[in-house]
């Protein structure tokens, strides 16, 4: 590092002092320092809010313990779409009536991709990229086998992600649906959701975005972009807790055309009519299958209100500053030790995490976890630094990257 670099870059203390969202970090539960010194994995599991502990206790005592079965009539039957609408309003740019909550992300992806393929007669091709998260790829392989559809693969580009031109030569009159991640789980590449959606529509195909790594960190305008379907998880930047349920968005114009494949009573038009035949409910309720995971939906409500109070634009602004800082530190401290930054340098093409590659990073990550410095590792060589804007400080990033440098140089 040159002296010039040292003097040009603000210190982590200066960045924290200038951070308009710094006070929000107090809202998160803080384990004692022996357990945690730097949490860099909010993109895998967000931290709990302090208020969530009391709210869960009160849920047990009041809504569940006192109202008991009456809770379904009074509130819980509507919870999937009420919480869904709030996710839509606060984070997705989605008007009410287009978002619901339930199932795991994998199951929700299955339901939505199957519904999309079934709704496109004469079209039997699904497009996805080789670098997409395993569950997305596996589910599409399963659906292709089940429906006799074929898969058109976008070639892997691990240091980047999918650009509009990557669809050239693959998109056509046989394409039923295109499935892409808005932010790539490995590189953090942020796709041009609006441009790609428009291109997919020109070919008459449906567009499904996996929002797992963007929801709650990147502002979105799903309605404006004309997105057909989106699925995302709520345990990362929506801090819903381990295994909190997924959400699905279906554009109002597509809801009647889509029929999901797992016909359960809760997605039928009259669940308590105990009818002979399944008839799908109107609107988003048709995408529900079984009893909604109401308890597991509670923590995300607290985070949604915190995000609403500051706004997604402020969240994104901090996210950009955090990833810029993590890249600058990685360049100074890790690249000289042979590490390679494999995330986009252009902020407009980057979500809220970065990945740095080095052959020793699997061992480095294991050693860091013992010390309470928590990034994560994705094979073959990627150490991911996830920066959850409302809970991460610049000091934490500096401490974390310095610890990675120390572990790496000790092991070399
Ligand atoms: C892009 C992407 N899709 C899906 C998932 C997860 O699916 P599930 O919630 O079913 O484990 C993840 C992370 O776990 C992910 O990063
Ligand atoms: N759901 C999990 C359960 C256990 C451990 C990690 C996860 C993740 O979410 C991983 C994340 N989707 C990833 O991009 O690697």
From TrEMBL:
Top class in the EC scheme: hydrolase
Keywords, sorted A to Z: Hydrolase, Pyridine nucleotide biosynthesis, Pyridoxal phosphate
GO function terms (MF aspect): kynureninase activity
Record InterPro entries: Kynureninase, PyrdxlP-dep_Trfase, PyrdxlP-dep_Trfase_major, PyrdxlP-dep_Trfase_small
Swiss-Prot/TrEMBL catalytic activity: L-kynurenine + H2O = anthranilate + L-alanine + H(+); 3-hydroxy-L-kynurenine + H2O = 3-hydroxyanthranilate + L-alanine + H(+)
Pathway in which this enzyme or protein is active: Cofactor biosynthesis; NAD(+) biosynthesis; quinolinate from L-kynurenine: step 2/3; Amino-acid degradation; L-kynurenine degradation; L-alanine and anthranilate from L-kynurenine: step 1/1
Enzyme Commission numbers on file: 3.7.1.3
Superkingdom classification of source: Bacteria
Cofactor: pyridoxal 5'-phosphate
Coiled coil (UniProt feature): none
Family: Belongs to the kynureninase family.
General function of this protein: Catalyzes the cleavage of L-kynurenine (L-Kyn) and L-3-hydroxykynurenine (L-3OHKyn) into anthranilic acid (AA) and 3-hydroxyanthranilic acid (3-OHAA), respectively.
Subunit architecture: Homodimer.
Descriptive protein name: Kynureninase
Source organism of this protein record: Arthrobacter bambusae
Lineage: Bacteria, Bacillati, Actinomycetota, Actinomycetes, Micrococcales
């Amino acid at each position: 590092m040159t002296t010039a670099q040292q003097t040009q870059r603000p210190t982590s203390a200066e960045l924290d002092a200038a951070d308009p969202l710094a006070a929000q970090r107090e809202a998160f539960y803080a384990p004692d320092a022996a357990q945690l010194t730097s949490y860099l994995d909010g993109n895998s599991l967000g931290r709990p809010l302090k208020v969530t502990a009391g709210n869960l206790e009160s849920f047990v005592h009041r809504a569940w313990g006192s109202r008991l079965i009456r809770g379904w009539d009074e509130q819980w039957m509507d919870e999937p779409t009420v919480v869904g609408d709030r996710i839509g309003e606060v984070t997705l740019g989605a008007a009410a009536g287009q978002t619901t909550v339930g199932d795991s992300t994998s199951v929700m992806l299955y339901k939505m991709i199957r519904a999309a393929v079934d709704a496109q007669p004469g079209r039997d091709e699904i497009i996805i990229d080789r670098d997409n998260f395993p569950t997305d790829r596996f589910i599409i392989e399963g659906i292709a086998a089940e429906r006799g559809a074929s898969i058109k693969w976008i070639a892997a580009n691990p240091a980047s992600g999918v650009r509009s031109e990557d669809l050239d030569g693959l998109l056509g009159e046989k394409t039923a649906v295109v499935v892409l991640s808005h932010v790539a789980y490995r590189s953090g590449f942020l796709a041009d959701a609006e441009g790609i959606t428009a291109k997919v529509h020109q070919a008459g195909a449906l567009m499904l975005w996996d929002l797992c790594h963007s929801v709650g960190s990147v502002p979105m305008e799903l309605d404006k972009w004309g997105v057909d379907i989106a699925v995302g998880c709520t345990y990362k930047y929506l801090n819903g807790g381990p295994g909190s349920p997924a959400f699905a968005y279906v554009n109002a114009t597509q809801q009647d055309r889509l029929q999901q494949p797992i016909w359960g009573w809760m997605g039928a038009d009259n669940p308590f009519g105990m009818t002979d035949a399944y008839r799908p409910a109107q609107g988003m309720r048709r995408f529900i299958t079984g009893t909604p995971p109401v308890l597991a939906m509670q923590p995300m409500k607290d985070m949604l209100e915190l995000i609403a109070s500051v706004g997604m634009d402020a969240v994104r602004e901090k996210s950009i500053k955090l990833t810029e800082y993590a890249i600058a530190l990685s360049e100074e401290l890790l690249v000289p030790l042979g590490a390679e930054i494999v995330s986009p340098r252009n902020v407009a093409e980057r979500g809220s995490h970065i990945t740095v590659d080095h052959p020793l990073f699997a061992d480095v990550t294991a050693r860091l976890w013992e010390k309470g410095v928590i990034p994560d590792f994705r094979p073959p060589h990627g150490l991911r630094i996830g920066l959850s804007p409302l809970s991460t400080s610049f000091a934490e990033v500096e401490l974390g990257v310095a610890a990675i440098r120390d572990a790496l140089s000790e092991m070399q």
